[in-house]
Amino acid sequence: MNRLLYIILVAALAAAMPSAAHPDGGKKAKADSVYIGGEVYDSFTKARIKAVVTITSEDSALAKTDTCYIWRTSSSFGFRVPKRPMRYFIRAEAEGYKTITDTFDLKPRGRKGYYAIPRLLMKRGRDDIYKDVGLNEVVVRGTRVQIAYRGDTIVYDASAFNLPEGSMLDGLIRQMPGVELKDNGDIYVNGKKVDYLLLNGKDFFKGKNKVMLENLPYFTVKNVKVYDKSTEKSEALGREVEAKDFVMDVNLKREYARSYIANAEAGAGTDNRWAARAFGLYFDDHTRVAVFGNANNVNENRQPGSDGDWSPAKMQRGLLSTKQAGLSLQTEDKDKRIKDNFDALVRWNDSDNERHNSVETFASDGNIVRGSSAFNRNKDFNLNINNYLTLPKLHIYSYVNLDYTNSSNTSWRRDSTLRDTLTNRSWSEGLGRSRQLYFFGYTGWSQPLPWGDYLVLFADYSYSRRRPAEDFSLTGTQYATDGTTDRRNNYADTRSDSYSYHLGLSYDFALPDNWSVRPGVSYGQNRDINDNARYRLDRLASDRYDELGLLPSTRDSLLLALDADNSAYTNVLTRSYGTHLEIMHPMAKSYVYVQLPLYFRREGMHYRSGGLDTVASRSYTDFEPYAQMEFSKGKNKFELNYRMRVTQPEFQSLMPSDDTTDPLALRINNPDLKAITRHWLGGKATFRCDSIDLTWYAGAQTYIVRNDFGTRTTYNSQTGAYTYIDDNVDGNWDFELNGGLNGTFDKKRRLRYVFDASVKYIHSVDFDVAYDTSADVLSTVETMRTNLNLNLTYTLGKLTAGLAGKLTARNSRSDRQGFEAINAYDYQYGANLKYTIPVLNLDLSTDFNVFSRRGYGSAEMNTDDPVWNAQLSKSFFKGSLVAKLTAYDLLHQLSTKSYSINAQGRTETRYNCIPRYLMFSLAYKFTRKAKQNDKN
């Protein structure tokens, strides 16, 4: 593995370094030239202008013309000119504006390759006969192209999709070809995860995709673009200094880009289901304010008529009642000297989760079966505040995050362990509450130097406090062999405080041909204090402690119940000294980024538990290289990535102690535990053929782990208790091939197909379970996991019909004695329909799918579950009011079941889920459109 790592790093560095000049002088020509560029805006509104800019050198030897490139928030132009002192005359022209001229004196210095021309501000001309004329919107209906490409940008035309009135952004995203929307809000485009969502090129609750997905009305969206975006740091520095983000940019229709938008919806249904939400948005060229509120107890946002992805394994588990409200404020001054983005989100959740487990643990002396049922009720309050501040002129960028959580929960659990006969039964009841405060901040500053280099400083800082964190539990364990029962009343009081800060300095060498090399150093310090006090209240001489949640009235009485052997106090101070080297080469059609960080860390810990009170220390070095390479050839794109990660065992887990809190699960620390090293290598190629409307991709990736954490497990055949100790194990790795394609069959692009597939081989190694004595026998399970997805969609006017089919196969083998081969299959087939009924103008959406399972160990898992959903909607008052009738799970067959397998065993799980219901709702929307007199 070390040899493979060495080869990869050498290849990355060889590819990253600038090549020698070619005999034809092409490289030399670039080295003897520089790039000058600027931006053009309206002098009053600071709106972008697509102007034609011409430059002429003072000696008349050079004259060039460029049309401004309108991109997100900028309107830019640029020219490559000889690297020598020269005065240039600049002329900007645009329809409706007065022509302006200016001069720019180029004074090349050092290795600097880019020179910024001061912004050009244009005034409207008196002959702009259209400036006060308002034109009514003209709607052209016909066959619209759902997906198009502009360079490396994917553009989805929102008007080409058929969605019912009242739909939100998530309904559009789910229909876009090549796009997958996960239940947690994660979005994948052609198999690649989107880092975050943008609204008109700007952040909107960054990192919280579901806020926009569930609250932005579909009718406001013009198109959705997917592209690679420069990071905040790169934009502040004015050049690419780190890998770009992969983003999805939601662009509003022109009439909503400067307007007021408001919509609200409320509904009530059977089985006490209810939902309500409201959303308001104000948008102009420099300010955006959004507020929203959402409350419901349906914990489901997928709509009937989509691809029918209601797989039980992906359903929202349990029952959830949620209330949330949010505010987003983004502003900038007209001269773009300051930009600020403020987000605040407050949320109340009340969840009700029930789980039923069947677990089979593999063992050479006979497999062990455990069955369990559990219930958990959680109530959470969360406040999250984020603020991004950028001062582009000063090259300062700052981010702060504040998060506060207050939680409480109640629970119960029932378990049993069997082999040939019943071994034990156990039960427990629990109460808990906790409060946690977390703060994080980051500040960066860069100073461009006259000769083209950059000096960069950064600092990040954090603070966390968790207090109180209390847990009560009443437990009982009955042993079948002798009929005895072990009853316990446990109380845990956990408190933690931590802080950290890191300071860094780097110097960016700007090399010819847009190469840059950045060495840097950093220093950081972390302090983590954890006080985990456990008590056995059943040891106190009073029957009152047979009840849950009662504490003694005095501190002295509580100390009598202290379980010192299972209590621990740790105070860890970590100092980190780092150095790194980054090599970058961002170009229009290629990108190379290599990061070579090296960190030396020194930890000191005060540890106290039971009879042990000691001070310990350790030192280690982490090397975690990363390499990313991308290049485009025509309409095709190729990517290659490598990453290595090192995970050290927690310092506390190396202390010679054990945890006997649970009588059926004794956990022993292993002082000899080593660090895990993970390697990830992946590549992907994306191809386009516009003439036949075909896009397809293929990729491969492998994940290799050295010194993975395995678990040595000893099973007591008399009591059914387990003893666990973590230890390192080698041999865990996997390899995956994936690919997909989407396109249309017909020239009018009415019949579209989307297909994707993946095959993953997983080699899983762990320690075999030993009976009544410790053993060092490894168990290996080889699993082949196959996924196939196919969607066909036909669109004609207001009719959209589709077919969907999916297959997930898990085939596992092992040479371990007594292992039975596992061949489990989940497959789905179904259809969906969206249609606007003429005359009545009634929108119908429905989907019908059958979810089937085969090959599971439990007969109750091998089922066929037909799921049918439907929705009728009708708009009134020109679409301002929409009435909807929604029916979920008409056949009452929906459930949540999941299955997993590894080298230790297999688990089959069932959860409770929301019952079927019928809901009637009303949605109202209000818009105040901007006047159509802005020619920009």
From TrEMBL:
Keywords: Signal. Pfam families: OMP_b-brl_3. The keyword Signal applies. Residues 1-21 form the signal peptide. The keyword Signal applies. Residues 612-798 form the Outer membrane protein beta-barrel domain. InterPro entries: OMP_b-brl_3. This is Outer membrane beta-barrel protein. It comes from Marseilla massiliensis.
